[in-house]
Amino acid sequence: MLRQNGWRVNAKRVARIWRREGLKVPSKQPKRGRLWLNDGSCIRLRPEYPNHVWSYDFVEDRTHDGRKYRMLNVIDEFTRECLAIRINRKLKSADVINALSDLFIMRGIPTHVRSDNGPEFIAQALRDWLAAVGSKTAYIMPGSPWENGYCESFNSKLRDELLNGEIFYTLKEAKIVIEQWRRHYNTIRPHSSLRYQPPAPEVLQWPASQLQPATPATQRLASNATLN
Fold first, then answer.
1. Beta strand extents in 80-204 (DSSP E only)
2. What is the tens place of the pLDDT at every residue in 45-100?
3. End-to-end Cα, the chain, rounded Å
């Protein structure tokens, strides 16, 4: 983001300033064991294309008056795009179905939907509805949040970059500010696993090698369109 604003910096210089100012430095994560089958393959389903695996999870926070509210975060694991953040004081399995149905209409039906074993996600009504529309559930093992790593990573960024630094006085304010952050996350914020590109940029920058000069016929069409 600094380079996009014209700064000539590298990662080492930013890291030095980061530490000198006493900002948070991520600690090294401990290595965790994985579940493996007898043939050596990992049980964990990995996304291979957009709409292959979605994942969702709840995050809780409180407004200034101490009242709790919940956020349902839905992401596409392949593109890392946050598809929606549904916010309300209470969210039940019916609210999960409503949120997913809106996304299915706009985005299409994913092949798999990954989640933990929370009561809202394992509700029979939700499982029956997903089976009816043709999407498969992919529940993680109990007590293994790292198996839902994509969504857990997003939840951590949401809390570190927004929730820990904001005071929301009303639920309406929380919905507006969080939705603005979601759009910033999708369209502007660089993602390290995407070669420091945002998950869903508003403007695509094509490599110079793929840009071709306009032909005389194309130039005439453009000129006529401008005159008209």
1. 82-88, 112-115, 136-139
2. 889 999 999 999 999 999 999 999 999 999 999 999 999 999 999 999 999 999 99
3. 40
Q: How many CB atoms lie within 10 A of CB 85?
A: 20
* Sequence letter at residue 29: Q
Q: What are residue 176's phi and psi, to 5 degrees?
A: -65, -50
Tokens of 79: 């593109």
Say if residues 177 and 162 touch (Cβ distance below 8 Å): yes
**CA 115, CA 94: separation in Å to the nearest integer?**
16
- What is the distance between the alpha carbons of residues 117 and 124, in angstroms, rounded to a whole number? 12
Tokens of 37: 């089958």
Give the Cβ contact number of residue 155 at 10 Å: 19
CA separation for the pair 85, 99 (Å, rounded): 9
Mind listing the pLDDT tens digit for each residue in 145-174? 888 889 999 999 999 999 999 999 999 999
Q: Are strands 136-139 and 82-88 parallel, antiparallel or unpaired?
A: unpaired
Query: What Å distances lie between residue 139 and 45, 70, 72, 163, CA to CA?
Result: 10, 21, 16, 27
Q: How far apart are CA 168 and CA 19, in angstroms?
A: 29
What would the two tokens of residue 184 be? Answer: 């910033």
Q: Would you call 43 helix, strand, or coil by DSSP? A: coil
